[in-house]
Automatic annotation (TrEMBL), chain A:
Ion transport in keyword set: no
Organism lineage string: Bacteria, Pseudomonadati, Pseudomonadota, Gammaproteobacteria, Oceanospirillales
Protein known as: Branched-chain amino acid transport system permease protein
Organism: Modicisalibacter muralis
Membrane-topology annotation of the record: Multi-pass membrane protein
Superkingdom of origin organism: Bacteria
From TrEMBL, chain B:
Similarity remark: Belongs to the binding-protein-dependent transport system permease family. LivHM subfamily.
Keyword Cytoplasm carried by entry: no
Pfam family, one: BPD_transp_2
Membrane topology note: Multi-pass membrane protein
InterPro entries: ABC_transp_permease, BCAA_transport_permease
Compartment list: Cell inner membrane
Protein name per Swiss-Prot or TrEMBL: Branched-chain amino acid transport system permease protein
Keywords attached to this entry: Amino-acid transport, Cell membrane, Membrane, Transmembrane, Transmembrane helix, Transport
Xref: CDD domains: TM_PBP1_LivH_like
Transmembrane segments: 12-32, 62-85, 97-115, 142-162, 190-212, 224-252, 264-296
Amino acid sequence: MAKHRAELLVNLVIALALPAAALTAWALGESFYVSLVSRVAILALAGVGLNLALGYGGMVSFGHAAFFGLGAYAAGIFAFHAFDGTPVISWPIQIMGAASMPVGWLAAIVVAGLAALAIGAISLRTSGVYFIMITLAFAQMLYYLAVSIPTYGGADGLILYLRSGFPGLDSSDDLTFFALCYALLMLAIFITWRIAGSRFGMALRGASRNEERLAAVGISPYPIKLVAFCISAMITAVAGALFAELVGFVSPTLMAWKMSGEILIFVILGGVGRLYAPIIGAAIFILLETLIGGITDRWQFVLGLVLLGVVLFARGGVMGALTGRARHV
Amino acid sequence: MSAALIIEQVLNGFQLGVMLFLMAAGLTLAFGVMGLINLAHGSLYMTGAFVCAWVANATGSFWTGLALGLLASAAAGAIIEILVMRRLYDRDHLDQVLATFSLILIFAEGAHWLFGSRPLYLNIPDLLDGAIALPGGGGYPVYRLAVIGVGLVVAIGLFLLITRTRLGMRIRAGESDREMIGALGVNIRTLYTLVFALGAMLAGLAGVLVGASQSVQVGMGEPVLILAFVVIVIGGIGSIKGALVASVLVGLVDTLGRAFAPSLLALALPVQAAASVGASVASILIYLLMAVVLAFRPQGLFPTHG
């Protein structure tokens, strides 16, 4: 019980730390740091998505950058066509571009959901290392596809000149944009929490531990895992859409295998299968990048050492160190 | 499409294939024997290429560079095996992925520090410079033929090592039951270090061979690494035979796809569209191949018992 309480306390601190940091930076007039906190929230959101597949479903996806990138491109392409005044698709129905965030998010969710359905349907036939490798391969496939489509900038990427709007809010304001990112992050954590506690979530955890046993009680593991994989991809895609709005630029590197590795890092650094862990992971990553990156360009050397240390000596990530082993994983 | 062009592209495909085999052999051995998935294999490839290029530029001798490059990659392999990999054998794949991912970051930044950010260039040795005539006209570089030859020799050597020698017997025994061969008095730790260093040396060899025909730079290992993973997944992880078959398959499909997909598509599409669609089809062809193979045979073409 004490550990349970410790985890609640830590979660509360983490949840409040982000808006506190953003407000402080805003009060000091440091808009760069407000954006930096938004970045943490967005990357954490990508991690929350992966955590659903990885932490609760035991699916080690090394290709979540594909969904992050697809989300970014979906939002970017809608904004691009809105700027151009041309339709996104003209057949079978005409869909015009729209420089509106909710439209971009919806597009990201639909596109990533469909992609995850196809990728998951094939990948989930395999398991173990094969699953890791096939998700990586699918991500590479989408990466090369993005590189070779000249309409949307190919390898050079797509520049978004204006941040898309949000009805009733001034989204170009850094603090407002942070609030949107944070709201979505908390919503995704809430959804994950509800899923984890539901009958579906129990079955998912069962599938990650012992598929035969789950099948023996009459639940087929494959559809459960596939649905979880799709939801996971959709959450990560929304993060991608937000990232595109944050930096105003979409490029194939968002889908590169290194990005998949980084999303994994957010989850593992924080603690696999812990609700709030991706926030810690993303925050540490960005802190290292900002602090050490300010001293030397070679900050990833230090990141590598830190990461290696965590894997070898601090299993369970930061959450594991703070509150002990997870109760369910 | 002349006969000479087709022969040339098939040879190129074989060259990519044997090069992938040199990479895939180490990966698949590490997985088959130690149960280890090693993302840092591309870093060992890079190490071989960098050391060879640096030494060759300093001494003017390709062969000295080659020897030291192989030595350096084997040594780097042995060192990371002892310091890091050893602790990972009993862990799940997630930990292995993450630990070896961090090694990639460390190696890449380390190479930046040691060798600078500019690419190094490695010249083909005089002995292998020049071209020979192909039937049907046109020439083919001797160096590329030599690469194919080296790859084939290594493949045969590896096959003999594993099937005919005592070391190979131990490696195979380690694959099927590691506790048992430990109990029989084989020093399993040394065996693992040896296997890992051997794989690292082959990766270094691949790096040197490629480095001499392209440039040597940080990040050169990762694209090859991903291709090598595609190879071992198609072949069946842990199977050397599968790695050989799949690397030639992947090499041919990738090379021929890039060479001929645009012109084949041009039969059905306008030339401009065919060129851009062809390029994207060609670059995803091997991933499609992998998806199709796995959809029908989830354990690859030559599944191992494990």
